Structure formats: structure tokens, C-alpha cells
């Protein structure tokens, strides 16, 4: 499955959430990671993120695309060089 993870967390937890996310997904924009995961890896990612965030104040979205092919993407503007942008 193709997973897109978008997060908005307290500045104290941003690095931890990003570090966990990068273990499983590719970092594409400031608070966005994406990539193919197995169901087991997806569950592991969710559990690790759940253990770090404050569920009262932080938000993490997972968009799941059940497909074997990469989603179609159109970029408008310039992708920042520091991000691992996937074409």
C-alpha cells in the first residue's frame, strides 16, 4: 500500500516524529512523508508515532492508497532542495 503521512505536532516532538517517519517513508515536504509500506510496517509506524505524540494537542494523518502503482503527482512551484522529492 502507498502511505502519505502528514503531521502537525508541537515543536518539542517534531524531530522525533520526523525521525520515526523517515525509518519507514521518504521525506518529501516539511511535514509530509510518503512511500510504499507493508501492512506490518504501517502498523509499526503507527504504534511508534502513537507512543511519541500528545493525542490532545498533536495531529497525524495517514492517507492510504491501496494500489501497487505510485499515485500520480503534479508539482507546482519549486520543491525545496533539502527534501527527498520523488518523481
TrEMBL record:
The keyword Nuclease applies. One of its GO terms (molecular function) is endonuclease activity. Pfam families: CRISPR_Cas2 (PF09827). The keyword Repeat does not apply. Its EC number is 3.1.-.-. Its cofactor is Mg(2+). Mg(2+) binds at residue 8. Keywords: Antiviral defense, Endonuclease, Hydrolase, Magnesium, Metal-binding, Nuclease. HAMAP family: Cas2. CRISPR (clustered regularly interspaced short palindromic repeat), is an adaptive immune system that provides protection against mobile genetic elements (viruses, transposable elements and conjugative plasmids). CRISPR clusters contain sequences complementary to antecedent mobile elements and target invading nucleic acids. CRISPR clusters are transcribed and processed into CRISPR RNA (crRNA). Functions as a ssRNA-specific endoribonuclease. Involved in the integration of spacer DNA into the CRISPR cassette. Homodimer, forms a heterotetramer with a Cas1 homodimer. Belongs to the CRISPR-associated endoribonuclease Cas2 protein family. This is CRISPR-associated endoribonuclease Cas2. It comes from Fervidobacterium changbaicum.
Amino acid at each position: 500500500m502507498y502511505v502519505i503521512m502528514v503531521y502537525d505536532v508541537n515543536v518539542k516532538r517534531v524531530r522525533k516524529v520526523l525521525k520515526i517517519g523517515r525509518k519507514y517513508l521518504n521525506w518529501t515536504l516539511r511535514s509530509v512523508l510518503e512511500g510504499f509500506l507493508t501492512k506490518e510496517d504501517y502498523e509499526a509506524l503507527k504504534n511508534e508515532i502513537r507512543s511519541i505524540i500528545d493525542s490532545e494537542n498533536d495531529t497525524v494523518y495517514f492517507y492510504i492508497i491501496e494500489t501497487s502503482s505510485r499515485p500520480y503527482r503534479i508539482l507546482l512551484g519549486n520543491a525545496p532542495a533539502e527534501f527527498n522529492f520523488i518523481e
